[in-house]
Design a protein that fits this description.
The chain is α/β, with parallel strands linked by helices. The chain has 15 helices and twelve strands.
Length: about 375
Amino acid sequence: MMCQFLVPVIKAQKKRSYYVCVCGSEDEDAQRLRRLGIDVFGHNLQRGLNPLSILREILRIKQILIEQKIDVLICHTPIGGGVGRLAAWLAKTPKVIYFAHGITCAPGQSKIKWLFWFTVEKILGKLTDAIIVMNDYDENLCKQRHFLKDSKKIFRVPGMGVDLDKFQAGPNIQERRQVEQELKIPEGKTIFISIAYLIPEKGVFVFLEAARKICADRDDIYFLLAGDGPSLEKLQSHCHAYGLEKHFKILGWRNDIYHLMRAVDVFVLPTYYFEGLPVSILEAMACGKPVLATQHRGCEDVVCDGETGFLVPIKQVDPLAEKMNILADDQSLRKSFGCAGRERIEKEFELSLCTNLIWQALEEAWQN
């Protein structure tokens, strides 16, 4: 989170003579931040809801807030946002901001799960001075359900932004040939890619099932799935059982996402996860790729259906496969969507623009 998305914002804060430190996992990314001159205080908070672990880290973070005399705590991620706000309440930190990269009570959940997370967010809202959101759903939810007493303390930003110098549009024949050779894909085939944390909610099994349906009728399309996560082995098992190893390539973790994105034809994200504003979609559009995503929070805020790509219902294989076939068969449509997507990113989601808007929202949040 910090290394990939928040360093530009931290640099903007430091330029204005604020002292900024980070409390996060003690790992390689923490060392990277330290090399950038950012103080990092490690915690042992893990994914999951172990009560004893959470309580221990709340007390540890409380102590860090007190010792460092922190004036403003900015929380990120659902668990970090909860633990951080509780620690700040105990430490009596003057200002607490929740930077929501997707409110936990999201569309696509069961009613019971949604109600549980809604209740949690309402309680934590009482410990929060301001909330920053990235999409229409979260903004409307926070304001209409009164997550804060003062709706003026709910700020909307257009995501973290994309570095357009890094993610450039236009075909690159050399990168394409390298990917084809590495993955044994014949020249002239259409390549779809999905990049995600490998859990069902990211739509990875829907992507696999759509590929299975398509491969039953044609053999000119190849599918790439990049990422790591708890569903990796299950996906590999299903892929083997379906006999799709030739056409459906499960790549695991990759550190060359930019090159993969530039080499493929279409980006796919059939998510129903509690998205904020999917950065992978922004990066794909910056590379001039058409996007196939779901009618879901975050995706709908970026992808213009029929202009920069297609939006399909969540958890449904047939509509996804249908749109894949359309894009595979129409190169001019892919080009049109890709150009429109790049133009949209340049106008609304460029990195420095988004960084400035985030900084302005943060400054307004803690100064009033």
